[in-house]
């Protein structure tokens, strides 16, 4: 037990220090480590072909070096400690200090060389999901290459044939390694930076974990009953908002590496899916949508013109995916013991209600005594009180005053008078016109 | 316990009487209450812009009053008792006496004013899913407005910018309130009544409940293992059929507020999705389908020309969604004790079959001793015997003789001779031609 | 118990012998029985309209006889024994000796007569999913016809109105009969053999089973927690590869009769869905894809030009669907007891890792003592070692040398030098250029 805890502690501290010995791997590109779980603002590329960089929600993009014609990246697979939201850290597996690993950004036509060093306790590989490449670079352990053993470094080289939205993840002990958070995004920009150009381009990956309340390490044999549904290994209120300037053309791209569909819903806008991990969707084939059902092992990009100012909820529409660990195993509070009692009561009194006497909304406001390293089920608060959300939830904030390159959270929006739902009180009721008879009553 | 039961009893009786004190809310539009769980025939609108009304399956449309330019509706959120099918009633939460609440129908360009009175035991809000509106009218508790406390009335006002298929539901303690059935449809008709015109236009909402056999109140912390899969909070054989006149252009629209996809399958026709909650699908983007996979938090409208007479099954294609409560907890009949025994037997005799000696079809015919207020798992009967269905199943009945405005169940269809599957008996076998050798056998 | 085992033993041996008494059903077409679980190469049709036959993955096509204008098939529903992969046989229900039953192939415009003999222990029917036919031929027990009782033979007759990808399955005691594997594909070829022509045309059906380790008969009341995810009732490494000649136009069609979506992912190619069970998707409506989310009760056909040689993984992207029975109930090896211990440990030591000390990859190589008739969870091996896969996984093998009609497994592909990921060793690291400072580090 102790050795396991020590291993993770070492991994965690290794993020700040240098986890790869420069002596041993002298001529590889220096692996660069995660700057932390906040959204990193996108810098312009300083070498290679020009492109308009994406913003990785609660993530960052991998630096590279040019080596002749080749754009070189160095990924280090290793145990990491990831803050899921303030108050909870998880022992995950990631790349270069974070789960997900850094977003790889390159340009159509680029030749990329990807060094992959395995610092995990078991073998791994990387599959470049969606890329058109030679079969021997496809990263399927046993099929396209031998597995990368702990301590080894492998090299992948291929030319990027098409722009689009892709991802990378292991194809080795897959269920375990993805259940531990080992994955990242791979964006290929068009050769012409004006093609498919937008003003804001956000990306994230969806993953799910099953972590018992009070624990920090996911159970890896889980199939359906995950209890933490994340965007880039973050849960609300740990997910940053998406700040957008009024009038911007906005693209949001996401991939799904959980075990179930996620119907991703944006309030306030009608939009279209414009891309998948197979390329760009032709305009004739686009559907108007408010909810995109993202399949497992697939990616979607959607776009809209940000013409409606305000704070717009953006979330998975499966309501248990916008909650944190349901705490079925937190014995004396919400969970098991109470339900055991309920079950016995129901057999005696059929109509006994299996929940709080008045619903669960109180939980959004309650300070419950949770085990250490456990998040509340429903959390976060907005300008008007508790949001009662967790998991896959955040807010797209559309603002008139925002600057072009500004990705800081602009705070909450106050709607102009007359565009806000309002409470009737005694006087406003009296002031309202007399009700005529309803026009039809059936 | 008793107080809980009393509360529901009061709510139930309140449907018949008047649940809102006219003195207290003198100048609000009079809330109108559900006429019951049968499909209400659609009356033509008597005020406001003209439109072709929809038919809500096992539901009804909300009346309104015109107040100057404004079309005013009054929704009252409250506990309701809903008959899921004859023989079982559930304690749900709904609007104006029913779950789902009444369908709201209005016209593109209409200014709507929606009064929402909270008579639930906890706070709520209403989110107008899919509508383009000011952020402050979006109904996300804590984000766009303060929650509506019990006893309070809130007012939402906005202009309807696009025609289409939308819904309304709480954005407050969401998992609980939707697990209790609090939701409704919102249809915006095109400004020109001839645009997108069809002859029959049906709508319904899908919801799921987890109610222990013998109980009446859903368990609200359920995530996956629901046992009652409903259309408009009804299960087969409680779902009305969809009567259609031969040759009619038919549209069916539905929304999904459960926690999983529903692949909705219609027999006998190939059709196309023509609309979502984001608008109308352009003809160039339409796929031919027989099954529409409805995502959670999304709506689909599909259309077809009813050129094939007959009784056509219409159902979710997940077979456990066309069954009622599986009764895993009904100890001495289908469920747990037997399976416990089976498990032990399997360890001794691997090939022991974990079901009835001859499948489960007998259940469609059996009269099993079920607990009070519990439906059979497989039920209903047609012209040729037991249908062995429950849950999300009904029949589209296409008839030559049906009148244009007739929505009564036309009864079962008898196919003309020669278009019916027939049983071979001794004489018909003998009359059949001698079998040649099979043309190829591989 | 014994009688049940005897029944299945009899059924199994009955496949080799003749299960239908020729005396009793003298004038029906002779039912032809499965040639076994290997992929049968497609013979050209020797009677009726010409067509380009499909290849059923680990399956076969039903022979027919012409009887005047009518193309006659004879399906016999009965218990069968199916090898899921070498080392495990399951007691299923199928048609003509196999589960799935034989693929029915016919041509647009054909008049088909389908004799269905019920040799199951309970009643059944056949629904011709996706076909446009008279209501009385639709096969919904109780609604379109009386159920077919054990021992009876029914006859369905209809003309095939549209080409496309369809299936057949019971519409009687549906959950049980599909959980037992009773289903098959039904391909209607276009009247003009050059329309929609491809060089390779593969088909398969997806089904799922819940079979306890050491048992052979599925549990039929399962709703979500299946443990064997199959293509044509086969699991990897029992699923044949798909051999394709370099440059071929390839179509792969599949149907889903499980209880959940399957995101089917092909490596190395971008492709489009070209058909559903509702017909052919017009080019204007096609999306580029690498993963097709196949809904339940639906079929998809996709196409691509096989321009990239190699061994391309082809699988469901839900990672627990590419594993065989997870063995939660195999007490002393992977499963329950260990986890019970873990749960107790987690309450004491929160960071204790709920899996092997170093992940699960060892399992791909381990020889574990499994109960008889149980497959390893992760299995198969390729040219570079263990593949660590099970369930819905196989390989599309694109080869230059393959002959037009050759469907034999061409073995593993060796990529040319320079197109293979390679391991860095001390000397190659030293030979690499000195790393410049990373171009940007954020």
From TrEMBL, chains A, B, C:
Query: What CDD domains is this protein classified in?
Result: CuRO_1_2dMco_1 (cd13860), CuRO_D2_2dMcoN_like (cd04202)
What are the protein's GO molecular function terms?
copper ion binding; oxidoreductase activity
Query: Its domain of life?
Result: Bacteria
Q: Where is this region: Disordered?
A: 31-52
Compositional bias of kind Pro residues: 32-45
Which residue positions does the secretion signal occupy?
1-26
Q: Which PROSITE patterns does the UniProt record give?
A: MULTICOPPER_OXIDASE2, TAT
All residue ranges annotated as the Plastocyanin-like domain in the record = 86-192, 216-331
Q: Which UniProt keywords apply?
A: Metal-binding, Oxidoreductase, Signal
Name of this protein: Copper oxidase
